Amino acid sequence: MTQDQTPQVPTPPMGRPQLRQWELTVTAVADAPVNMRRVTFTAPDIAEFTYRPGQAIVMMLPTADGEFGRRDYTIRSLDTEKGLLDVDFFMHGDANNLTPGPAFARDAKIGDKINVRGPRGGASFREDADWHLITGDECCLPAIFHILETMPAKAQMHVLIEVDNTDSEIALNDIREGLTATQITWLHRGDIKAGPSDFMAQAVAGYHLPHGRGHAILIGETSNVRKQRQNLLSRGLTREQIASEGYWRPGRIGGHDHVED
């Protein structure tokens, strides 16, 4: 994508937050675990970019029909000293027919420019909670890992991650050492297809809620997130104790779903 192809991000409809616009320039592209492609960006005003780990940016990415479409991607990291922002793209789908996000990550070259808005989203760590529960699938790994890397080391955290098999697992110490109160449980789908199912909802239903005030971060496929949210609400958590966002759902073209019911 060249500079003259860079689209303007459309103005949000009335009622939506007015997110700041940024013009990002690609500085590096590399593979990252697990089955991710990391694109590193910079911008002249990147020093003014502030966010909470777990938040995303709205990217206008080229589509197969030659147009541009909105896609939300989690911020993987920000190096304020070097002025570099990383975004990891999950490389899913047919290698010869990738969706816009993976296709952009595959083809991105140093010097390419893209307009984005953000940051946005409420799925982030809460300092006032006694314990946290995070759930997600493969596409949520950048958000989950970034939260684990940046939260207080002694925070009580239980993470449920849905993946195909052991090939997608990463040891906790490889993410960050010293997380003495954090436990990751890798849930293997096996023959269950990624997408709407009761798989993660059953795991959440079987999770014993610790004592104290908790906070849940539920991300992943929208209908799965909704089931998990409803289960936790039925067990006594309040709406304010649950941050839930649908990262994707079959047939949806771009964007995140705010799951509030």
UniProtKB/TrEMBL annotation:
InterPro entries: FAD-bd_FR_type (IPR017927), FNR_nucleotide-bd (IPR039261), Riboflavin_synthase-like_b-brl (IPR017938), SIP_FAD-bd (IPR013113), SIP_fam (IPR039374), SIP_rossman_dom (IPR007037). This is Siderophore-interacting protein. Belongs to the SIP oxidoreductase family. Residues 19-126 form the FAD-binding FR-type domain. It comes from the Bacteria. SUPFAM superfamilies: Riboflavin synthase domain-like.
